[in-house]
Design goal:
By secondary structure, the protein is of the alpha+beta class. It contains 17 helices and six strands. A six-stranded mixed beta sheet has the order 1-2-3-4-6-5. The two termini are 22 Å apart.
Length: 564
């Protein structure tokens, strides 16, 4: 028996309530609030995707490279180099652009799925990019001998402190709120929240910058008439910043689940050499350590931006593949429908033409002065015969369609299950659901159409995802299992770890228009049950309780496989 495991991440509201009784009210409310459930149907944001083993390996590799580089530079950190006046403006302008682009991407994800954590993190990147650029304006010999603004001595250091205090603080807020509920709905409410946040950030940055530039003489001094060497206070502040960043790094490590968590940790790790150089080397400017530390900060600033762009590209590629698959499936269905309708039109044209001709002849006889009843009787008999022939044609085409779709169909259950999991991969990831499969392997095909079986499996999996929406993320598990029952039946079970179905609802779960989901139509399980029954199989609720439900498909082995 082969076993496979998939990991995923999630969202999706738990739903309960009558189906047909509230259908009219639901339709009336659809226009009022259609957007709120969009993230549940399509919750594809990178911030909610779990970190896979491969991504963790990449992150560990990057962290090791950063550590090795820092250790290699450390013995030479105090070697004094020449003063490059354009270094800070160029480096930190690039850094600021990277931070602000990252913030824009995070705001875009917030617009898709409004979460307070994303808003806090995007705010942190705006703070970081703003303070990084403002520091270049105050840095001596950058854009001006004493800086464009500030006192040219302590103002750059204070902006540095604000920069490396606000950014970890935002990450800390993100770490403690990322598992909480959303902040609102997509659309205008999310845009309004972003606008208010950006306005508050701009006001805060402006106020703090005014204090550390125009009123710098009232603040403690980090330099004593020498822009190269810091005072003891400067070293103490760098130690505090180091401990502050390590605290945030620890919190994020304890609560790490997603790709975003993983690379934020690498970003914070890249910032640490900046403080270590300042502590060990007494913040002597223009040394190898000083230049290298700022290079590490630039790498850290570009880290998440690079990951967001790469993951967005891969996500786009996967979505394009899924859309192409859906279009191909739709085209195949349209071709089948076209073939059936063409056959019906061709076969019915003859009896319908005869009925029309006989009816016209009968009318002309009735309009005659002395209608011949014997001729009318023959005409009516012909009409009846042609009508019966048309009915027989429809029945024969119906039987032919059923035979083609079902009687002659031969489908591998495990292949269909694998394809269904691939189509639902993003839903599973977005909802934080881990998937385990126990496929027996070498199972004979069943006598059922593959497309219909796929729709049934997709329906069962989507119901399982909805059932687990109210369960803690680390307890959400979907399990698929196949097996043979004797030598004539194949079984496929779909098990979830949701809240289960109440006993009073279990007897009605397959009834048409009965649903336990607020937005459900109550047709999915009913249609699935009828499709399976038409092929000689069964769909049943095997068990359901507080620890989840198990639905089981029982399908007969294809006659073609039995002969082989």
């Amino acid at each position: 028996m082969s076993q496979r495991k998939y990991l995923g991440l999630v969202s999706g509201p738990a739903a309960s309530g009558p189906g047909i009784a509230q259908a009219g009210q639901r339709r009336a409310n659809t226009a009022a609030a259609p957007a709120h459930d969009d993230e549940q149907e399509f919750p594809l944001i990178i911030a909610n995707m779990p970190a896979t083993p491969r991504q963790k390996a990449w992150a560990v590799g990057v962290a090791v490279l950063l550590t090795v580089a820092a250790a290699g530079i450390a013995p030479f950190a105090r070697i004094q180099l020449g003063q490059i006046n354009g270094f800070v403006p160029v480096l930190q302008t690039a850094l600021s652009l990277a931070e602000l682009i990252t913030a824009a991407l995070l705001f875009a994800q917030f617009a898709i799925q409004p979460q307070r954590a994303l808003l806090a993190l995007a705010s942190g990147y705006v703070f970081s990019g703003s303070f990084a650029f403002l520091q270049t304006l105050t840095f001596p010999n950058g854009y001006a001998p004493a800086g464009v603004i500030g006192d040219g001595l302590d103002s750059p250091a204070w902006l540095y402190v604000l920069w490396h205090t606000a950014f970890p603080a935002a990450i800390l807020v993100y770490g403690f709120t990322k598992d909480h509920s959303t902040a609102g709905r997509p659309g205008r409410p999310a845009i309004a929240a972003m606008a208010i946040t950006i306005a508050c950030i701009a006001a805060t940055v402006a106020g703090l910058t005014w204090i550390v530039t125009a009123k710098a003489e009232f603040l403690p001094s980090f330099y004593a008439n020498d822009v190269r060497h810091q005072t003891a206070l400067g070293n103490q502040v760098n130690l505090i910043l180091l401990l502050w960043n390590m605290t945030v790094l620890t919190v994020l490590f304890v609560r790490m689940r997603t790709i975003l968590d993983l690379w934020l940790m690498v970003t914070l790790l890249a910032y640490l050499p900046n403080f270590l150089v300042a502590i060990i080397g007494s913040s002597v400017r223009f040394t190898i350590g000083w230049y290298a530390a700022r290079g590490f900060v630039l790498i850290g600033s570009c880290m998440l931006l690079t990951v967001l762009l790469i993951e967005t590209m891969f996500l786009y590629s996967r979505l394009a593949s899924v859309i192409a698959l859906q279009r191909r499936e739709r085209a195949n269905r349209l071709l089948s429908i076209d073939a059936v309708t063409g056959a019906i039109a061709h076969e019915l044209r003859s009896p319908l033409g005869a009925i029309s001709l006989n009816a016209a002849t009968g009318l002309s006889h009735l309009q005659a002065a002395s209608p011949e009843l014997e001729d009318l009787e023959n005409i009516l008999s012909d009409i009846e015969a042609d009508a019966n022939r048309a009915a027989d044609i429809i029945s024969s085409i119906r039987e032919m369609t059923i035979k083609t779709a079902h009687g002659g169909a031969s489908t591998n259950v495990e292949d269909v299950a694998e394809l269904a999991l691939k189509l639902l991969k993003h839903d599973l990831l977005a909802n934080g659901i881990s998937v385990a499969t126990e496929f027996q392997g070498n199972i004979p095909p069943v006598s059922m159409d593959g497309t219909e079986l796929q729709q049934i499996v997709l329906n069962l999996c989507k119901n399982a995802i909805d059932a687990m929406s109210s369960v803690p993320a680390d307890q959400r598990q979907l399990r698929m299992k196949t097996g043979l029952d004797g030598g004539a039946t194949v079984r496929l079970s779909v098990e979830d770890s949701g809240t289960g179905i109440t006993p009073r609802h279990q007897e009605r779960i397959f009834d048409p228009f009965f649903t336990t989901k607020q937005g459900g139509m109550g047709l999915g399980l009913a249609i699935s049950s009828n499709l399976v029954a038409r092929c000689g199989g069964k769909l049943r609720l095997l068990k359901s309780g507080v620890k989840g439900s198990v639905f089981e498909l029982e399908m007969p082995i294809s006659a073609r496989a039995s002969v082989l």
